[in-house]
Protein: Branched-chain amino acid ABC transporter permease
Amino acid sequence: MNYLIALIAAGLATGAIYGLVAIGFAIIYKATGIINFAQGEMVMLNAYLGLSIATFSGVGFWALVPLVILASILVGLAVEFLLVRPMLGEPAISIVMMTVGLAVCLRSLVILIWGAEPQVLPVHPAEDVVQILGARLYSTQILAIVCLALVVVGFFVFYRHTRAGLAMRASSSNETVALLMGIDVRRIYALAWGLASVTGGLAGLLVATIYELGPDMFAFGLRSFPAVILGGLDSAIGAAVGGAIIGVLENLGEGYIGRGLKEIVGFVVILMVLMVRPYGMFGTRDVERV
Structure:
């Protein structure tokens, strides 16, 4: 029983990171209808920027967090302004392929600047071990779970009770009507990319504290994609829940069946969800009347 609880607890910690990355997918899709296949690479880039900020500024971990958030916002806005905005009005597949190209460029850029060798973040929060219901977790793992919970609450309030959130929901529902109502859709797109980059930056910082930094960090984007399919491509809260579920299922698969199963559990879930409920647990079902 203790082994099962330990697997679930560790899976929730990993799933919290998946959830943060998946929220980035959901935010951009909800606002623009585009899947950003460079989300994992943006996670990696933001984490390496955090490494450079910590190295050259000498700040502690808690002072580093807002600096990484700021850097992540700038990265998201730069991508939207330089690459996405000039392609507005183009077919969606063209923008999706642009994100694929961006992913390859960001991987090469990270290796060119920081090298291919794994690196360690020079600052960490306290590495205490906490026992919860028989499961032993590091404080950084608990931090990941708490961070995901706070982000979910923040986005719930943002979408329900702020003008920007309501404008984003309106734009995702009908872009033409939103324009006629005076909503600046380009600003909404920029906001979506900035917020998605922030969630990626937080995920990258957590990965760097729990594991290490390396050019293979982009794989968290691929491994988080099943979470957003499970939760719903247009639901940030669903993406967070999906991340937690995928993290737990991966750990249970590795713990009870075999190590090699961990990498394929998420994609087995994708196949099952697409066959039974293709719009996800919390996604919006499209209904067309003819």
Remarks:
- Residues 2-32 form the longest helix (31 residues).
